[in-house]
Amino acid sequence: MILFCLCIFSYNRRIVILIGGNDVRDRAPLFAKLTEHHRSKALSFHVPGHKFGRGLKQEEEVYTYYHHIMSIDGTEIAGFDDLHHPEGVIQEAQELAAECFGAEQTWFLVGGSTAGNLAMIQALCDRDDILIVQRNVHKSVIHGLMLAGARAVFISPKVDQESGIAAGVRPQDVEEALKKYPDAKGVLLTNPNYYGMGIDLERIAAIAHQYDKPLLVDEAHGAHYGFHVRLPQSALACGADLVVQSTHKMLSAMTMSAMLHVQGNRIDRGAVHKYLAMLQSSSPSYPLMASLDLARYELDTDGHRLIEQGLAVVEHFHSLMEHLPEYRILIHQEQQSAYTSLDPFKVTIMDSTGTLSGPRLAHELEVRGCYPELSDAKHVLLLFTLHSTRGDAERVYEMLIEISNYYQLAKQETSSAISNINELPPFLPLSDPISLDTRLYRQVSQTQMPLVRSLAIMDAIGECSAEMVIPYPPGIPILYPGEQITAYTADLMMKLIANGIKFQGSDIGAHSIINVFTGGN
Q1: pTM of the entire structure?
Q2: Which residues form the Orn/Lys/Arg decarboxylase C-terminal domain (predicted)?
Q3: Average pLDDT value for residue range 402-426
């Protein structure tokens, strides 16, 4: 992602456009200000200490990379504006982003969508408030509820019958939750999920607004949505009130850079701004913010062509894979009900003979020089973007041929059995409110407290979990503190461990043990 900034910086023709095109969208004002300052050779008697990239000159290879990106790594000096009180180039860049993505107001984020999820929840919920949340959310949503001391009513997602992957929630389940909990502060959903599966967000937004509740959407994987007829509509276009997007995931911004968008009058924008100032650094990275400016610029000025180009690469890969029936690719079936759309840039593959697990297939790709986005028990997710090439598609295809030949997959019998990493225990469609007060977590973390003990997973059936169990990827909790460990859940954890899946913030995977509360609930 650093090289993206440098590529634009190195072309004089483009820098002229960035500084002053006829169309206001042909500008990247923040990036232009940073490069203008660099060319001025102004003296730096301020932070950061590397003085616009003078450091590490003695390390030639390091300096080659370090110098260029650090040459625009500044701080809040005159003209550079302030992320937490924007009035100049950052404000202009954010306004251009809002126009581009269809928002009324946009905030740049330097802490990823995680910062956006945390701020959304803090701005909406006080202690003991209820928020309706789909169960398979990113852990940052749970952390936001913990920080707010709020309660979650979880809606269980539907499971895709072809792949067994937990997809999204149904509109009728959202409405049932709103009827049962009329005091809920709002609804927070993920769309699309990690695998690109989407839900009927427009209908859900209409239902939420019918009950006068805001719809918050974690659209981390959908920043490119709405910019091409072959892509799903964006959450904002569907009517969502507050939307966070990881601009770095599918577009050209640098890792950790994201945006938070708002529209309508159901959200207290002042509260959002306040919590963003609390949750983000007071010294935000200017290269990160500039990369957001540039990603918007690229999408505004060349997005349609790049999306067409990227989609053509995906189509090319699909056509190649038709020659390898030993692999199965997830295809959206219109008649199935677990999800309503599938991001074409997310290509989920599996060994249809059952010979290779997802982690094993991913490993075989990695040793050949291809690094997938994720693997689960059976699947590998290949993430294509606007900047993938036909050469990329052909190389991974050749690797899959090598793997098939090595394991003689073409000679094996294919299986239609469904298996699933993201399968969730058989929860009720709608949970009771679950407290995620941080006071509970502080008690759990104090190991000297007699409240908690450790048990082997299979011995913990019937006990109440004292920790959050998060297999990663994709970072979806399957157990929350206070929830009972069922035989199904214990078996699922053991299966994940056997398949090499890691657990975040837990020793479960290493030792097959889990912390439980003493004396049941």
Answers
A1: 0.88
A2: 453-490
A3: 75
